[in-house]
Write a structure and sequence with these properties.
Blueprint (H helix, E strand, L loop, with lengths): L11 E15 L3 E19 L1 H10 L10 E10 L4 E9 L3 E8 L2
Antiparallel strand pairs: 1-2, 2-4, 2-5, 3-4
Length: 105
């Protein structure tokens, strides 16, 4: 199998993480419930030459992402015997904050 010299397509989705943090504080007659969540998606491109993976990571393209969303890139060796590399792109979406109230029971 020949190694790819450029990045093609949107990659393979290899992971989704949703970090949720919930905390409560007590008011006069209500309990305030705060919730903060941050979502991350990880994509990989495999069977790349070292130059293709490194060039894509160095470019760190943010094209096509919404406001408040960022992407980070890393290039890593995938198969030493074959000499292939992979590109990993992690997209971090903007943190979503919500606040609700509950009455004392």
């Amino acid at each position: 199998m020949a190694l790819a010299n450029s990045i093609v397509g949107s990659g393979i989705l290899t992971g989704v993480t949703n970090n949720i943090r919930v905390w409560r504080f007590f008011g006069f007659s209500l309990i305030y419930v705060n919730k903060e969540s941050t979502k991350e998606e990880t994509f990989e491109w495999v069977a790349l030459t070292q130059a293709a993976a490194q060039d894509a990571a160095d470019a760190a393209s943010q094209a096509g992402l919404a406001a408040g969303v960022v992407a980070s890139y890393s290039a890593a060796e995938d198969q030493r015997v074959v000499g292939s590399y992979k590109l990993i792109k992690t997209i971090t979406y903007a943190t979503v904050f919500t606040q609700t109230t509950e009455e004392y029971s």
